[in-house]
Design a protein that fits this description.
Blueprint: E1 24-32, E2 39-48, E3 51-57, E4 68-71, E5 76-79, E6 81-86, H1 94-103, E7 106-111, H2 116-128, E8 135-138, E9 142-144, E10 154-155, H3 159-172, E11 177-179, H4 185-198, E12 202-204, H5 212-217, E13 222-224, H6 229-232, H7 237-248, H8 253-269, H9 273-286, E14 289-291, H10 294-302, H11 318-322, H12 337-360, H13 379-390, H14 395-401, H15 404-409, E15 427-430, E16 444-449, E17 452-455, H16 456-472
Parallel strand pairs: 1-4, 1-5, 6-7, 7-8, 9-10, 9-11, 11-12, 13-14
Antiparallel strand pairs: 1-2, 2-3, 5-15, 15-16, 16-17
Helix pairs in contact: 1-16, 3-4, 7-8, 8-12, 9-12, 10-12, 13-14
């Protein structure tokens, strides 16, 4: 997440959400069952308040009196999409970022580092209709080691500090604990133990001193970016860990990163498929979810070749785009041409590992790492779906990673993830079938989020407001 202070946002032009006190009927669309891939053509879906109250063939579901009818003919109805790794719960950025998720059919996000008080405020504003935005699950602050990478992190250098941090974050309203890269092993283990005792999940990076197998065995709920897995799959894992740990114990982040870059090609060259296969089996057995965030993995490994010509950047605040220059990013500005080439070797290994995970049945979630370079709210979730298909998923599996799988991850299949009677009315109406081509997920005709209906004209107005705001600043 970039170290930038956002400007105060102007008043939103179309912030007020449409009312949800009328009964809404979507008629004639093909409903996609994301659990099985079955299609129900010519369906009628009835939404009242926040819930789906009926689903079925048009001739079997009555049209409620006074209902607002949406013509779904020729369209395909899917559950609302989730981006399972974002950074958007930040003061001053709500009106800027959150509407873009809805404009792209993303009706839920898991925020992996933000401000709990901001998230709570945004939740209230979204619920009342004062702000256009998705439902939000969040960790609040990162929990990192005594020399944290990011300002604003909670730091813990001893097991006792780790336990207190878990208790404090839970009391403050965090939905889960976000663990990070430089937590000492004994502190990480204490955090894992305490999180289990108090009943709060922990997720995030696999710290450098912890193997992927141990993180899985200790109950880490999800691992982000494939962190820690390439090293755990190396034939030289023990020697590389000794070398890295001897340096990282007494140095700062830039020096540690320089060492990690130097060791990167060695990790790639010593990749052991058999070791990785054992790790994948553990992930399946322990239900350790993976959020590979291939969107950010690609951008970070190719940023030296990327230019600010993507038309979607017109909707992203200029100060954020300016911060995506690798010459100014503290993580990337010291990279040499050889470092960039090695980072692309790592990207190729990440692609291979994801393909193997898919074949092994490791549970996968779609996430992007919004606010990192070229990870754009809402837009990039569709990039991630394409990356997942490129890694060997079927379009259905990729769609599941952004719909039913998040519902399973949150143990919320009673209310989220599918189009069924009693479920929350988070829906996306597409103009083409995403099971034929996952790129069709971008062909959005309408979005219903928590029972509120946004037709194409209203979605376009949300985008127009974002573009106008950025042009004026």
């Amino acid at each position: 997440m970039p170290l930038l202070q956002p400007p105060a946002p102007p008043a939103a032009v179309v912030a007020a959400a449409p009312p949800r006190d009328t009964t809404l009927v979507i008629d004639g669309a093909t409903v996609i069952d994301v659990e099985t891939g079955r299609r129900l053509a010519g369906a009628r879906v009835v939404v009242r308040q926040r819930r789906i109250v009926d689903v079925g063939a048009i001739d079997r579901v009555a049209m409620p009196a006074g209902a607002v009818r949406v013509d779904g003919r020729g369209g395909f109805l899917i559950p609302g999409l989730w981006d399972m790794h974002v950074h958007s719960a930040l003061v001053g950025l709500g009106n800027v970022l959150l509407p873009l998720y809805i404009a792209n059919g993303v009706t839920g996000v898991r925020d992996m580092f933000g401000q709990l008080f901001a998230m709570k405020a945004y939740r209230t504003q979204i619920d009342t209709g004062a702000l256009v935005g998705p439902r939000m699950i969040g960790s609040g602050h990162i929990l990192d080691g005594p020399k944290p990478i990011w300002p604003g992190s909670v730091s813990a250098g001893t097991p006792e500090q780790g336990v207190r941090a878990v208790d404090s974050l839970k009391a403050a309203g965090a939905d889960f604990i976000k663990v990070y890269s430089v937590l000492p092993p004994d502190v990480y283990r204490a955090i894992a133990k305490r999180a289990k005792e108090v009943g709060i999940p922990f997720a995030g990076h696999i710290p450098g001193g912890i193997s992927a197998l141990e993180a899985s065995a200790l109950g880490q709920h999800s691992a982000e970016h494939l962190t820690g897995i390439p090293l755990s799959c190396s034939r030289d894992e023990a020697a590389i860990r000794r070398l890295r740990d001897s340096v990282q114990a007494d140095t700062d982040y830039p020096a540690a990163q320089a060492l990690s870059r130097a060791l990167g090609s060695r990790i790639v060259d010593t990749f052991d498929p058999a070791k990785c296969a054992a790790i994948y089996r553990a992930f399946v057995a322990n239900r350790t979810w993976q959020v590979p965030t291939m969107t950010v993995n690609y951008s970070i490994s190719h940023l030296d070749q990327m230019t600010a010509t993507d038309p979607r950047l017109l909707y992203i605040p200029k100060f954020l785009v300016q911060g995506w220059d690798p010459k100014t990013d503290f993580r990337l500005k010291a990279l040499t041409p050889a470092d960039w080439e090695n980072s692309r070797k790592t990207w190729a290994l990440q692609q291979r590992m994801l393909r193997e995970m898919v074949r092994a049945g490791v549970p996968i979630l779609a996430g992007t790492d919004v606010l990192n370079p070229y990870c754009m709210p809402g837009f990039s979730l569709h990039d991630e779906l394409r990356h997942l298909v490129d890694a060997g998923m079927t379009p259905l599996q990729a769609l599941q990673a952004a719909t039913i799988q998040p519902a399973r991850f949150f143990a919320a299949t009673d209310s989220l993830g599918t189009i069924a009677r009693g479920k929350v009315a988070d829906l996306v109406l597409l103009d083409a079938d995403p099971l034929v081509d996952i790129a069709n997920s971008t062909r959005i005709r309408a979005v219903i989020t928590n029972g509120r209906y946004y037709d194409r004209a209203r979605l376009d107005a949300v985008l127009a407001e974002a573009k106008a705001r950025n042009a004026a600043n």
